[in-house]
Amino acid sequence: MTDAVAQEFQTRLSYVADATERMLDQLLSERALPGETFRPAAFLGAMRYASLGGGKRLRPFLLIETARLFGIENEGVLRAGAALEMIHCYSLVHDDLPALDNDDLRRGRPTTHKAYDEATAILVGDALLTYAFDVTADPATDADPAIRAELVLALARAAGIGNMVGGQVMDLEAETSTEPHSAEDVIRLQSMKTGALLHYAVEAGAIFARADARAKAALSHYGKALGAAFQVADDILDVEADEEALGKRAGKDAGRNKATLVAALGLKAARKRRDALAQEAIAALSSFPDEKAAILKEAARFAVARKN
Amino acid sequence: MTDAVAQEFQTRLSYVADATERMLDQLLSERALPGETFRPAAFLGAMRYASLGGGKRLRPFLLIETARLFGIENEGVLRAGAALEMIHCYSLVHDDLPALDNDDLRRGRPTTHKAYDEATAILVGDALLTYAFDVTADPATDADPAIRAELVLALARAAGIGNMVGGQVMDLEAETSTEPHSAEDVIRLQSMKTGALLHYAVEAGAIFARADARAKAALSHYGKALGAAFQVADDILDVEADEEALGKRAGKDAGRNKATLVAALGLKAARKRRDALAQEAIAALSSFPDEKAAILKEAARFAVARKN
């Protein structure tokens, strides 16, 4: 890593965050689309509350930068990134509900069910999830319907019972169990709950690019290692970080018998695993020219070095 | 209407209900699909509880019969019908939640959050909604990705903020208001909350058939009138039916200042509107040969004559 790459990474990260914010703002406007009857304004406000003004937009970033690795930069890629972010935001809104994680704060602000009410939060999640598929399937995302259909299928599969939702179910089960969780179980759970959507980000970039099987396999390897590294880093941050830095109650995972790799492996081994996974992600990109893949490699370093 | 048509309608209705049940059973099996990590078995059981063994499967019926109007009958159409039914079932599971309609019974059985718990019910809804897009976008549904992408877009738009979810939001708002609801507002709300998904059923059949613009417009008219007729009939049933016949608490709408057309128009005018809408739906199909459209016409009669 050079300072120039680290700086370009930060520039791209904030560019994508801004562009994603603008795209979400535009998509979540009051104007009804063809086939829609009416968008209730107050409820639209709640959808905007749940999705605008927050987060690093790491998932859109990975999607957009993977497409850019192949020279593809356009409005459609931004739309797919915003749709992916909607899926991420819906999952946060539903996970924060009283019946699930019962969190009052998210990114330092009241969670959606606290700022509004439970019914609104449930429906906001439903509407964001549904809209993500609308935006992805819309011809404005790509002229080629084969690309859109492939994106929808990959997104649904990453977000559904066999990955994200299934992982959330297992996470809740793990919490109510009094048994310690094996590292193997935690790794699988995390690959489902958070890894699959990060993997989709990279996969989607490759779908836009019509990447060949070899490039797709390399990127898939990168996406899986990155997703795993990101989640171990999260587990470690939860132990290390103080409340202000993280914007949510720190140490809460340990208090709940949450399935974390720090609990399963200990802090030292978890850090070692985190760093090894980041290196694995970087190595997976070795077949791409370094000047093109530098930003994605830096993203793997960032995923493990971030402080929140 | 002849007795022969009425009998064929019943035969087709129960054939489609059985075929949809089998398709849902097959789709909701434990076998993970490519890209999925693992399907947690107990949770899959809850998804099956929420979607198998109940209902008339009217939405798949309309989808399948519309495709059949153009001579199209295949596994893909059945898959799209099952996906549509998943959307319907997800909406029931979420609407029944304590924070929304707080219903304990559905089709004479405990609602999903009663049979399991609230967290499970929220996630079951999320997983069914997501899986509906997976099944629709899968190449097994149609070889042509343009058809799949168009189906996904139409389904998302019918189910999202501008229709189904938005209608549910407005329905909850209407309930907490002490003002009487105008017929105009109730009609718009119902066209969003329940009409749009019935309309999609017909639209999807036409998409599979690559119907021309004129046929699509006629079917869209049919779908809208049928959807409206179905919902007025529901409002009337709620007033008329006794608990056993309906399998849910009868008269509950009136007790809650629910936005219903019986409340807005009175029972007599509501019945008149219901019958006029059914006739409108039937008339919309006049450009199709009667022997082909007879089943869809009968469906309009059925929608208003049903007792539950």
Automatic annotation (TrEMBL), chains A, B:
Co-factor(s): Mg(2+)
InterPro entries per UniProt: Isoprenoid_synthase_dom_sf, Polyprenyl_synt, Polyprenyl_synt_CS, Prenyl_diphosphate_synthase
Entry GO MF terms: metal ion binding; prenyltransferase activity
GO biological processes: terpenoid biosynthetic process
GO cellular component, one term: cytoplasm
TM stretches of this protein: none
Keywords for the protein's UniProt record, in alphabetical order: Isoprene biosynthesis, Magnesium, Metal-binding, Transferase
Record-stated family: Belongs to the FPP/GGPP synthase family.
Protein name: Probable farnesyl diphosphate synthase
Record organism: Methylovirgula ligni
